[in-house]
Amino acid sequence: MSTSTDERADEARLEQLLEEQFEAVVARHERIEPRDWMPEGYRRTLVRQIAQHAHSEIIGMQPEGRWLTRAPSLRRKAVLLAKVQDEAGHGLYLYSACETLGVSRAELTEMLIDGRQKYSSIFNYPTLSYADVGTIGWLVDGAAICNQVPLCRTSYGPYGRAMIRVCKEESFHQRQGYELLMTMMAGTDEQRAMVQESVDRFWWPALMMFGPPDDASPNTARSLAWGIKRNTNDELRQKFVDMTVPQAERLGVTLPDPDLRWDEERGAHDFGQPDWDELTRVISGAGPCNAERIAHRRRAHEDGAWVREAASAFARATKEPGRDRAQVEQASGSSLRDPEGRVETP
Ligand SMILES: [Fe+2]
Ligand SMILES: [Fe+2]
Known about the structure:
Keywords: Oxidoreductase. Its EC number is 1.14.13.149. This is Ring-1,2-phenylacetyl-CoA epoxidase subunit PaaA. A two-stranded antiparallel sheet has the order 1-2. Helix 4 packs antiparallel against helix 7. The chain is 65% helix and 2% strand. A hairpin with a 4-residue loop joins strand 1 and strand 2. By secondary structure, the protein is mainly alpha-helical. The termini are far apart. Bound molecules: fe (ii) ion (2 copies). One fe (ii) ion (FE2) binds next to helix 4 and helix 7.
């Protein structure tokens, strides 16, 4: 055997050992960390899923963000502002988690605005009334909670840890939405009609958030085996329906599904199927707001270029030998100190 054949055999043995170690960690439900060896397919699947999740948080700021200037009271505005800002934070934790897998946030943003990576189908629907703010909180953030709570136990450490904080904030989002709808339902007939109309529009797209049915979801088995996903799409959809039906009753709205009923034997609700062709259309870019969402994101990214350049230039300048932060600030005629003299972090 030649040396290079020996080396190849050694490499193959090492790879097998590493793979066995990886499988054992996953089987024990422990975490894989950024410096651990991982199969290339696992890394790629995680990049795709975490990026898609991060993009959803950032694009998800748009449908509700457009109502910030038209909130009906100062209280509603403060609540909505806090919620939309939380979503930006979620996006940032998730981009950071994704960066631990060797891909930069700049690359991820490029892939989003080029259409090479996707985001949740739900954010391609318009928000037509203020009731939609409540419905999104109740149904969309509610569906996100069903999806994300099991991800706190996902096998990749940085993703799981990001999800713990995200889920706490999502609970607040869901409650603020439900509380808004409760208030409207206690109001005038017109307000009640607005809530019902909003729920009618968002119910089916909310069910689609869990993805296609299990028999049309080819990647699920692999993701479950790797401990990335903990439940199938259909299991999560069922959980969401069972959780939401009693909330709808309490609220006094009708969910627009004639097939929705309690199945005594299964101990769960039976329900109708969303229009899966619609999901395919929306995911492939032909939903009502896809073009608008991406155009807005692209514009925001381009408008922010000077901030990224200035921050990088500042960081480079402060690293030059013999120059400290105060000197750079003085030389550039700018100050990152707030009025009380504290230095703000760029
Ligand atoms: Fe979020
Ligand atoms: Fe949220």
